[in-house]
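Title: Comparing notes on inverse folding

I've been comparing how different people in this forum approach sequence design from structure. To keep things fair, I'm posting one structure and asking everyone to reply with a full sequence. Here's the target:
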């Protein structure tokens, strides 16, 4: 193997050959961004590069930014490096970033999942020598059910509540998780009401052609009595707020990978917990790494020590990268 293509600095993952950073957490001149979640796409960069489908959400969140949007698989030369973006399956527009310098290939996964969700561009494995992978759910206990089964559980819960005159409030992060839930809801059960943070993101994604059912924005003028039995979708932070207190009687739920752990379900104090994550589970992580053909694997943000040990036992040259990525939102 040649010299390292990427290095790990206090500002983020850096490519000397191209003088750029990937998902930097401190201001830099040129930033290549894997996806629009705030722990990966931060304000203050001089120039941004992202996929065409990630650009609208990033502009919505960051305001007017100098940016260059590329198609999946499109190769760009930056200095002495060649870069391309490949589907990560995490949220709409998310990407793995491939960097090639003098024939040495590194891939930064960002966040990803290998299970198709019907909303995000499906994950595609990318061959490389070195793979930088998240391991948010890097323990064998985390194994996701088929998305159709989870969707059926959510619709059954909503249907039961609606039949008994209760509102169904589900907490889910506003980019990615919320749209996955919406895309699989059965609108024949009743109306679907959304928090402003989610509805604003919905509108951005609808303009990109993502098919979502009709939703109603909850405003101060909305009268809950006119929407008995409705499904409410809100960010987790709004679950115990005045926004939610208007809707009674109410049944609550969270949709998150952490719902696989009983202790987390208890601490959330919700009536139901639906195991749904925008990150790869144990099997997904192992499959993704195997399909890269990588010889060297760096693990970051998650169960890094455990997962590195496991990879070493499987014969990989594995290391840990300290970053400021934090699996934002309800998957923290």
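Reply #1:
Here's my take.
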């Amino acid at each position: 193997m040649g010299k390292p293509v990427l290095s790990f600095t206090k500002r983020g993952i850096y490519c000397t050959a191209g003088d750029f950073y990937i998902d930097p957490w401190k201001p830099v001149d040129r930033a290549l961004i894997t996806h629009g979640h705030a722990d990966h796409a931060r304000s203050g960069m001089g120039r941004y590069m992202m996929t065409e489908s990630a650009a609208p959400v990033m502009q919505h969140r960051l305001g007017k930014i100098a940016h260059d949007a590329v198609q999946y698989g499109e190769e760009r030369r930056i200095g002495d490096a060649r870069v391309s973006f490949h589907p990560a399956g995490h949220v709409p527009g998310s990407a793995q970033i491939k960097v090639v310098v003098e024939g040495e290939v590194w891939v930064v996964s960002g966040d990803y999942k290998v299970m198709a969700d019907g909303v995000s561009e499906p994950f595609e494995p990318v061959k490389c020598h070195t793979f930088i992978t998240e391991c948010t759910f890097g323990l064998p206990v985390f194994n996701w059910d088929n998305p159709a089964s989870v969707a059926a559980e959510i619709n059954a819960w909503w249907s039961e509540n609606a039949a008994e005159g209760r509102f169904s409030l589900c907490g889910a992060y506003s980019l990615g998780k919320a749209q996955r839930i919406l895309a699989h809801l059965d609108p024949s059960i009743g109306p679907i009401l959304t928090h402003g943070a989610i509805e604003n993101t919905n509108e951005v994604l609808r303009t990109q052609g993502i098919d979502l059912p009709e939703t109603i924005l909850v405003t101060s003028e909305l009268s809950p009595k006119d929407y008995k039995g409705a499904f409410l979708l809100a960010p987790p932070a709004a679950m115990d707020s005045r926004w939610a207190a208007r809707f009674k009687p109410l049944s609550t739920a969270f949709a998150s990978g952490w719902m696989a752990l009983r202790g987390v379900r208890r601490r959330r104090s919700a009536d139901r917990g639906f195991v749904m994550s925008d990150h790869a589970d144990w099997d997904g992580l192992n499959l993704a790494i195997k399909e890269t053909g990588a010889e060297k694997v760096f693990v970051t943000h998650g169960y890094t020590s455990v997962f590195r040990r496991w990879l070493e036992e499987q014969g990989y040259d594995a290391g840990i990268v300290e970053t400021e990525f934090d699996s934002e939102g309800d998957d923290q």
